[in-house]
Design goal:
5 strands; disordered C terminus; single chain
């Protein structure tokens, strides 16, 4: 069975993706999310990720809270609309780090749970992943996990395990959009 390093933004998003992939891959969750706006939120999401993975027997690797990486990368894109260039930069940052970690630790491939969200463009994310695959020389597992009610199933699994579900992607810019428009990002 191939070893997959699966980037995850949070426990709820990982639930359905793990469920879809667990019979085909030996999965380890990689929690690298420098976009999260504060350490308290970062740790809350990490704690829920670890709690869920402990229940289902999946290992979690994390790199610690370091928002400097995110702010350095998105400099000049702070006023971009949600879902625009700033988000693509953020996806690339997290996927590059995941690919490098996967290669360093001897995984066969890397992927992400980001495409389970109906608010994330799976075409953009998969394109970035494939670009990184070519650059880093490690296979990227493409996915669009929101298909076949994937997002709905992730909500159901999250409720079953009483997982904390946040209402924004993690960055301060999406939080502002959420507060301004009262939408779930």
């Amino acid at each position: 069975m191939k070893k997959l390093l699966l980037h995850s933004c949070c426990g709820p998003c990982s639930t359905q993706v793990i469920d879809v992939l667990k019979d085909s891959y030996d999965i380890t969750i990689y929690y690298y999310n420098p976009n999260i706006d504060c350490e308290e939120e970062y740790n809350h999401r990490l704690s829920e990720q670890k709690r869920y993975c402990k229940i289902i027997g999946i290992k979690v690797i994390e790199d610690g809270f370091n928002s400097k990486d995110f702010y350095n990368e998105i400099k000049g894109y702070e006023k971009e609309k949600e879902g625009g260039a700033r988000c693509s930069i953020c996806f690339k940052l997290r996927l590059e780090k995941t690919a490098k970690k996967a290669k360093e630790l001897g995984y066969d491939l890397f992927g992400t749970t980001l495409t389970v969200s109906p608010h994330k463009n799976s075409v953009v994310i998969n394109s970035i992943g494939k670009e990184i695959e070519g650059k880093e020389g490690i296979e990227f597992l493409e996915g669009n996990y929101k298909k076949q009610d994937g997002y709905k199933k992730s909500i159901e699994i999250s409720k079953k395990y009483n997982l904390y579900r946040q209402n924004y992607c993690g960055c301060i810019y999406s939080k502002r959009v959420d507060e301004k428009h009262d939408i779930v990002v």
